[in-house]
Amino acid sequence: MSQITADAAGAAADAPIPDHPALTEENINLASGRVALLWKALVAAGVVGIAASIVACVIVAQSHSVSSAIAHTKGALFVGVVAVLGPSLGALFFLMINYVVNAGWMIAMKRVLEQVALLIWLPAIGVLLFVLSELVSAMSGGTGIVSTWLNDAITAEEYFITKKKPYFNPFFVGARLVFYLVVWIGLARLLWGISRRLEASGDRWLNNKASFHSAWGLLVLALATAFFAFDWLMALTDYEFFSTMWGVYFFAGAFFVTFPAMALLLTFLRSKGTLVGLVTEEHHHDLSKFMFGFVVFWAYIAYSQYFLIWYSAIPEETVWYIHRKQEWPVLTAFLVIGHFIVPFFPLLWRVFRRNTILYCGIGGWLVLMHVLDIYWIIRPALTIAREDPVGFAPGLLVDIPAIAGVVLLYTGVLVWRLTKAPLLNVREPRLPETLVHKNYV
Question: Which of 318, 414, 428, 436 lies 20 to 30 Å (CA to CA) from residue 10?
Answer without folding.
Answer: 436
